[in-house]
Amino acid sequence: MHLRPVGRVLAASALSLLTVITLAPAATGAPSRSPKGEEPGNGPERNEVAAVDPPRISALSALAENKLGSREGYPRTTQLRVYPEDPADKAIKLGLTPYHAIAPKLNELQGRSNRISVEVVGQSGLGRDLYLVTLTAPERPSETRQQERWRDKIENDPAAAARDRQLAREYKTPVWINNNIHGDEWEGTDAALRQIEYLATTRDRKALDLLSRNRVYFNVTANPDGRNLGTRANANGFDLNRDFVTSSQPEGIAMRDIVKTVQPVMMLDEHGYVSGTLIEPTGPPHGQNYDFDLYIKHGYANGLNIEKAVKALGHPEAQDTQIPFRDYPSGEWDGWAPIYTAQYSMFHGAISYTIEIPMRVNRGDYNLPETELRRRSAINTDVSEASMKASLEYVQDNRSALIANQIEIFRRGAAGEAQRYIPDGFVPGFGPEDRFTTKFPRAYVIPAGSTQRSGAAAARLVDLLVAHDVRVRQADRPFSLAGRTYPAGSYIVDMHQPKRALANVMLEQGRDVSASAEVMYDISGWSHRLLWGASVDIIQGGDLRVASKPVVAASPTGGVDAGPGQDLAITVRDGKDAAAVNDLLGRGIELKRRANGSVIVPASARVAALQVADRYGVRFSLAPAGDAGAVLRRPTIAAAVGPDELFALRDMGFEVRPVSTEALNNGFDLSRVDVLVVSSGLRYDLLNASGKAAVDAFAARGGVVTRGATGSKFNADAKLLDVTAVAGRGDANGIVNVTNGTGPIGAGALPQSFVYAPQWFTNLGAGVTVEQRYAAGHPLAAGHWRANEDGTGGPEAASGQPVVVSGADERGAKVVMFGTEPLFRAHPKGLYAQVANAVYWSATRNPV
Ligand SMILES: [Zn+2]
Description:
The protein has 848 residues and is α/β, with parallel strands linked by helices. Strands 23, 24, 25, 26, 28, 29, 31, 32, 33 and 34 form a ten-stranded mixed beta sheet that branches. β23, α20 and β24 (655-658) form a beta-alpha-beta unit. α10 (292-312) packs across α13, α18 (575-586) runs antiparallel to α19 and α18 (575-586) crosses α25 (832-843). The structure holds zinc ion.
């Protein structure tokens, strides 16, 4: 996953490290939660390194995609295009397969086996093909169609599937093996290639029997760019094993589409490196939406089975195996968030595992001598392959039980049955600390029309749900439910559905799990209902028989609600609104921005307004009488930010130039920049004289937007806004309740926000406006936020405190400071508008 290479005695040391982080002055050093080093991106570390633009690879021809499942029968052969040899590929030093060697290998195997199928299921950020390789005995098209009917029946008519004896006998059990999602955890790919070759070419009867009764799917490398570059993240700087319910990255979308199409009964996600080998199931907290009894029964049994196979290899380095469910305290290696491959795959009916192979070969260790690295990688490849072989044997031995198990997951969901009480000792070690359950609502309704906060946000949420295989219906006529009336076109998520757990994990508020564990592995709050900007109602009961049709795609939401010849207005309440405004600005259309934040589009730009309304799903209204507003030009942003923030800013159509301490020291030109955004990798105190002079000169005319500890420190060191920043506990994260002010950023913002390593502001000088405060009392709505050992830094300390402030520096710069994380991992789409408004406001001279 998860990368923290915890040993089983690490609870105490992890805690003391956290203390160090939270007591350290903001943004100094490079704090890490892991004694063996953790990548930036998961918390306080993310403030240290500013994103740069990814490298580009060239000379890659275009390829027509063959969509997953679009061809009939097996094998499905694809003559793969071959990539230029790259002698710098980081796998080579390890004696492992460089990306460019994978396609030739798969082409060769397809030439001599009719049990191997290869499909291209997408491209990486830099344009490398993603390979889905299927091993199974040949099937006639009619046989494949029958398999697809059974797969569909398991999901959509599970009660009948449970009674279907032919299905139980002849359905080919799908198993999905995902590899190399972290680019610098290489060996899963090599183990997969070995298994692929073996299964494609062996004459062993047991293997042939396996392939006649199962389909084994390999995502050979989930992160080809990271594999080639030796980076954990993809080329956009995203940790793909955190992106599952956000779906912001092409590689993540490909994996999501594989798991929902394949519907595996079992899946493995091959990672490294944890000393000794780590095999899930996770420890608690476990996600509260699962039918966990159906997971843990097989999950733990095969976990033990994998452990046995790994030990049987006889490598001394792979003997100290760890199963977090059995061996770790709560929170050390939890299964709470739906952002990881294994935890996400459970929602599609899989018994799933994160596997961590034992011998570190990445980061600092990559500099070890080649012979040592190759020794380590050989052991790792053996361990990874052992986990695959053991799991395939388990599936073969427990085929019918696993199929029945998946059917039961979907049957309970479709029937709307309550989760089962799981008694202590249900599997060895199951206790009260493992018991996480929820009560599902009867439905969620996403209203259409004027009752909706943002039509574009509602459509985005509906499209995301559908893309994840959540059933959504759209009402043909107005209807009433639970005392409320909804217009035609409103969306209904009936929670009696096979993947109700997935629907709920995205739409529920979540829970404050602070009391359940001292630390959590990663984020503990994510609610799409609260953070994605759409209004969503929770329906606890009532008659859901509403004339409706299933949704394939949300209805268009864009339009212009004023006649020709009239000036138009748009208020930026969503990132989509900002994208529309930026698109118009990019066309050279002169817009005005009023003091109340609304953007005025001249009547002469009507055609362009109609086009962008359609493109982004936003609405323009008649510009009300009022002030003329200040001229809004397309702002040029210099951003010292995390890769996720860079991605989100560009997603809104802003023109962004990456900057950093180093870039400014090397003479980066701020003279053409309108707004400087600072959250990562820019330290005023580390600037040389010319860098400081450039920032000081900029402060007399430009706008500044800061976020987090690095941003607050920059504000203080550059003597911008007169405030004192206070840091909450460094690993605290989740959804917080907020109250909004009426200033340019707070007005109309959502009543919830997202924090990670939260900040707040005290000692506000004259002229500093509070845009947003933490709600009074206990502001955490869902997530994990505890106080430091000395009692500081907790949610109570943040109660009622300003968390977003704005004001003008005495030299003239307009400054906005965020103690929240409005662009975190490109997830909280409903918070983007706050940053867009901060940019527009701070970029606009002489507000009227
Ligand atoms: Zn990993």
